[in-house]
Amino acid sequence: MGPNQTANPGPNQLAIPTPNLELTNASLRDALVTLEPGQQPLVHSDQGFQYQHLSWRRMLQNADATQSMSRKANCYDNAVMENFFGHLKEELFHRIRVLSTDALTAALHDYIHWYNTERISTKLKGLSPVQYRAQALVA
What we know:
Blueprint: H1 21-32, E1 42-45, H2 49-52, H3 54-62, E2 66-69, H4 79-93, H5 101-117, H6 129-138
Parallel strand pairs: 1-2
Helix pairs in contact: 1-3
């Protein structure tokens, strides 16, 4: 994650069999209701069909959010999230065996909480993402 970002998926959208439009729209709705008045988020995604769909784009427009999408065949546009998912695979998936969707959801919640609040990063001056962001906001 970037220095001013933390991973924070919706509470019920962590583990699903296959991604679909209903899931992505529900996740976006869950995220948008957490916004404070006047916040104008930047929402970055790849070029999946869900993110190009009119319903997704209208929700962003209605929330005064800006859509950012990776360019075709350019992995560097999504490098921050790819980095996070690399850590997730190495630090969670390669170390545990998950036998159910509920167990996977619980493991993901625990990992994301740990990643945001406890996992230190040399890129963030030895702080966790939450600590680094709090420090940056005070400065």
